[in-house]
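Task card 7
Instruction: Convert sequence to structure tokens.
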Amino acid sequence: MKIIVCMKRVVDTETRVKIAPDGVSIDTGGVQYITAPYDEMAVEKAIQLRDAAGEGTVTVLTVGPAEATKELRTAMAMGADDAVHVVAPDRLGAEPTAAALAAAIKERAPDLVLCGKQATDEDDAAVGPMLAAALGLPCVAFVHGLSVEGGAAIAEREIDGETEILDVALPALFTAQKGLAEARYPGLKGIMAAKKKPLANADLVDAPERTALTALELPPARAAMQAIDPTADGMQTLLTALRNEKKVL
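Output:
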């Protein structure tokens, strides 16, 4: 079984983001980068599926700047067999990203493609479905359970508080939701092995970008907290504030 996992280099989710002077990008000074957490779950699940089958390969694929090699090596340290890097500008829209991923995937003919449900920088959850459309593959998004039996996959996802179970013929694409797998920490043996695993470069295809980022803004600062004494007068103050200021009563 040949599995390809699409992953993205993103700003560490614990970073306090600052807007750059140009107003359309972030200030990267001192910023740390990681693999998008949902993509890490997809990598872990791919490794589990390969190991459960007792055969096959897991290839990790990214579209991003040259520095994203670090995240690819981390995925190989986790257990992926090889990696493909499409070197591209740090900020690339969903459509060009999906087109670049599709071009790299088509020539490799995988049985299964996994993506995170969304990257934690733009949160648009668009690349996975766009990629499936470009590849002509069935797509099941937001899966929290996935297994492979013969030439089909059994996918589980939550729909309005219920669990939907889908039997999907392979090849197909799935996007990972929280609960699909918990990413392992690479051990020293895996880190040393990753240095010797193949990492290939692929060309960035020329694809149109039909959207443009016009501005970035930080959310407004939260109002200062108001401490209320746990007394009868304090409760009256709280009720008055909820009724007159917050308009919730």
